[in-house]
Amino acid sequence: MTDTPILDVQGLETHFFTKDGVAKAIDGVNFTVRKGEIMGLVGESGSGKSVTGFSILGLVDPPGKVVGGKVLFKGEDLLQADDKRMQELRGARISMIFQDPMMTLNPVLRVDTQMIETIQAHEKVDKQTAWQRSRDALAQVGIPSPEERMRAYPHQFSGGMRQRVAIAIALLNKPDLIIADEPTTALDVTIQGQILYETQKLCRETGTAMIWVTHDLAVVAGLADSISVMYAGRVVEQGNINDVLDNPVHPYTLGLLGSVPGHNTRGQRLYQVPGMAPSLFKLPKGCAFQPRCGYATEACQQDQTVTEPVPGRAVRCCHPQVEVSS
Amino acid sequence: MSENMLEIKNVSKQFVKELDIAAKIANTLGAKNKEERVHAVDDVSFHIGKGEVVGLVGESGCGKSTLGRMVAGILPMTAGDIEIDGNSILADKGKQNKANALKVQMIFQDPFASLNPRMRVEDIIGEAPVVHGLVPASEKSDYVAKVMTKVGLDPEYRRRFPHQFSGGQRQRIGIARALAVQPEFLVCDESIAALDVSIQAQVINLFMDLREELDLTYLFISHDLSVVEHISDRVVIMYLGRIVEIAPTDKLFEKTLHPYSEALLKEVPRIENRGLDYQPISGEIPSPLDPPSGCHFHPRCPYATEKCKSEQPKLKDYGEGRLAACHLIEE
Predict the structure, then answer these.
(1) For B152, nearest residue in chain A (alpha carbons)
(2) Do A190 and B267 touch (CB under 8 A)?
(3) CB distance from B254 to chain A under 8 Å?
(4) Which chain A residues are within 8 Å of B197, Cβ to Cβ?
(5) Same domain, B145 and B215
(6) What's B220's domain CATH number?
(7) Domain enclosing residue B98, as ranges
(8) Is residue B273 assigned to a domain?
(9) Which residue intervals of A34-177 are DSSP H helices?
(10) To the nearest whole number, what is the mean pLDDT of chain B?
(11) Residue A3's pLDDT is what?
(12) What is the pLDDT of residue A129?
């Protein structure tokens, strides 16, 4: 795919100005997402993965502020766009799916009202057409008897069904990009399977690009085309999903993959990344992972630059573990 | 049979929502309001051997936590009996019973909600052993230090409050609290679900170390099959209050007997599985208020027959320690 990317994030920086100091939640994040591509954005709590999603949509609340970088959506810098332009884009060209569908849905409005509202906010269509499109969207995400369900209130749906409604709403205006923030974390395994299946199908059919924010490497493994691993506000490794999972190069990715219980680990000790994630107020000098890293040297005290130790892979580390993993 | 640490015999638990006064009045006038009755656990029997780790798996609402709470003695059961180390937990209250109750300890899911925020760690861990006379109050501090070291916490921190610890450390405090009364059997209810991946690995390793060191028996309740596969010897799978399959872990992951287990195992996302074509099982878990007739799984089962709709399958033994409840399994 050589066409221009749907989304090109360059050097994004979002800081939170609190009374305890400045927390650099995102500190220079770069990535691109192409048409129809699903990118997994993986990290542990506090790594800045959710804030990245919010920053793209301009939804960072004070004391947080996007202080630098560019978010190019089809060539247009969203950080320079005014509120009116962002309103046109949000929900129409870029939409978001949250972890808790109850936060997306208004509990006192029927589903049809909310869906029709979403369409009419962005397009001049009559109610009839909007209703039909909404119904089709519900059917598309696998909700049985959509015509009756249109008249239901959110509390009358189960958790999995509610998440489907949220996804249907995100799809209504046929967006170019969907940002999904841990949409299956709260769901059961079989329901998660169903949602992943629908999502994958939709992205393939409609060519919608997607950023799938999650802490679960296993979910991303089955779903995404590419992956970016975040640690303490920075992307430490990114590349093609198979390459990264089979031959991780950054010590953090290595550790993360080693700590996931899998088929062949029964009864063995899991690898554990020593220590814990640092506070954003007291980040270590240089590479933020350096105090927990088994390979750390003097050079890690310096700021790390992004290199390409293997073709197609961006890694922020001065001693990538190329020979170890291959 | 003192070979078994835990023996669960035909245990059931029903939650009943009784009629309120308005409904009762309406009933005397001829309305037909009925009590709402949830069969959270329905005639469940299995055992856990000494030193064994059994994983209890199922989706939300299948009754796995209710069962765990009954085993730990937090919830009374509606019918059946639970024996710990050969002694029924229903027996008269007495010294023996108290000693028995101490043998079972529970570790909860949320390390934020299960610790009293206004107590110091020293008191959280040390209160129970002092009350039960395991350690004299004068030696509490030293004893707590010993237990904290065991779970990998720095005893220097024992005067601190729970909020001064991270999630993983808090879960360790919960584990230390359970270990302080020298239990033989731990019930872990989703104990690692709320933790980050790298912290999860630390806690899983801790559970395995403690098992070796203290010869512990575990009932490990989780919805995460890959974690259960990693640490348990046997797996019990529940669906809507009933056991659908029991099998040794390696046998289960080789081949499942019950269609629900098959579906559940297929849905587990794994790092080894890339670019999946997800083929999910359809439908959702029915409401336990009004469970389907016959086999509870039949509305979602791709192989269901007429018999499945009318007759409840019994849990049958298929050899090699495998049991399953399904009409369709060939002998």
Answers:
(1) A275
(2) yes
(3) no
(4) 44, 215-217, 256, 259-260
(5) yes
(6) 3.40.50.300
(7) 4-232
(8) no
(9) 49-57, 83-89, 101-104, 111-120, 127-140, 146-149, 159-171
(10) 86
(11) 66
(12) 92
Q: Are residues B140 and B122 in the same domain?
A: yes
Token digits of residue A280: 């954003």
Nearest CA in chain B to A219: B269
- Judge if B90 and B200 occupy the same domain: yes
The interface predicted TM-score (ipTM) is 0.75
Residue B303 lies in a domain: yes
Calculate the alpha carbon distances from A303 to A6, A236, A289, A306, A307 in Å.
30, 12, 11, 10, 13
**Res. A5 pLDDT band, cuts 50 70 90:** confident
A231 pLDDT exceeds 60? yes
Interface of B with A in 142-181 (CB under 8 A): 166, 168
Across the interface, whether the CB atoms of B282 and A255 are under 8 A apart is answered no
How distant is the Cα of B54 from the closest Cα of chain A, in angstroms?
13
Model confidence pLDDT, tens digit, residues B81-123: 888 888 888 776 677 777 778 889 999 887 778 899 999 999 9
Give the lowest-confidence range in A100-104, A213-217, B162-166: A100-104
**Which ranges of chain A does DSSP label H, i.e. alpha helix?**
49-57, 83-89, 101-104, 111-120, 127-140, 146-149, 159-171, 189-206, 217-223, 241-246, 251-258, 322-325
pLDDT value for A12: 92
Worst-scoring range by mean pLDDT, A12-16, A228-232, B34-38, B124-128?
B34-38
Instruction: State the nearest Cα–Cα gap between B272 and chain A, in angstroms.
Output: 7
**What is the chain B residue with the closest CA to A270?**
B201
Interchain CB contact of A271 with B (< 8 Å): yes
Q: Which CATH class is domain A7-93+176-325?
A: alpha beta
| Contact indicator for B249, B234 with CB cutoff of 8 Å | yes
The pLDDT value recorded for residue B279 is 64
Contact status of A165 with chain B (Cβ, < 8 Å): no
For A271-301, write each residue's pLDDT tens digit.
888 777 777 888 888 888 888 888 888 888 8
Residue A296 one-letter amino acid: A
| 8 Å CB contact of A242 and B60 | no
Chain-chain contact of A277 with B196 (C-beta, under 8 angstroms): yes
Domain shared by B225 and B122, yes or no: yes
Six-digit token pair at B254?
């080789």
B261 in the same domain as B115: no
Asked if B223 has any chain A CB less than 8 Å from its own CB, the reply is yes
Q: State the burial class of residue A13 (Cβ atoms within 10 Å of its Cβ: 0-12, 13-18, 19+).
A: middle
Option in B197, B280, B285 nearest A260 (CB): B197
